[in-house]
């Protein structure tokens, strides 16, 4: 029994098999990003945040990290999201500019 009846038929069969394999691979791929976002306000303490830019399948989002280790994808246009992100950035910058006192090296004469 012959699988291909000519070069074009073999090429078409190969293309179909390749597309089915690629589709299955994409469907089962795990994405470590936000593919959807929530507009619901977070009620648990937030300890960190980062921005995510759109790069399909990932969407524009602010990713908040809570004190219980959960990550929450929030809609970047929500006013509470912008306010919380700004407050976290201000706190981080404030910590970055503080001069460490407890662990400062001391010099002796």
Written description of the protein model:
One of its GO terms (cellular component) is extracellular space. By secondary structure, the chain is an alpha+beta fold. It has a domain at 33-98: OB fold (Dihydrolipoamide Acetyltransferase, E2P), CATH 2.40.50.40. Helix content is 38%, strand content 16%. The protein has 2 helices and 3 strands; from the N terminus they run αβββα. It has a 3-stranded antiparallel beta sheet, covered by helices on one side. It is elongated and about 80 Å long.
What is this structure, in a nutshell?
One of its GO terms (cellular component) is extracellular space. A hairpin with an 8-residue loop joins strand 1 and strand 2.
Task: Please work out how many helical segments DSSP would assign.
Answer: 2
Mean pLDDT score, rounded? 79
**Shape field:** elongated
Radius of gyration: 25 Å
- Percentage of residues in strands: 15-25%
Give, in spatial order, the strands making up the sheet with the most strands.
1-2-3
Main CATH class of the domain at 33-98: Mainly Beta
H/E element order: HEEEH
Instruction: Kindly state the percentage of residues in helix.
Output: 25-40%
Low-confidence stretches: 20-27
The major β-sheet equals: 3 strands, antiparallel
Could you please say which CATH topology of the domain at 33-98 applies here?
OB fold (Dihydrolipoamide Acetyltransferase, E2P)
Total beta strand runs: 3
Distance between the termini: 93 Å
In terms of structural class, how would the helical and strand content be classed? alpha+beta
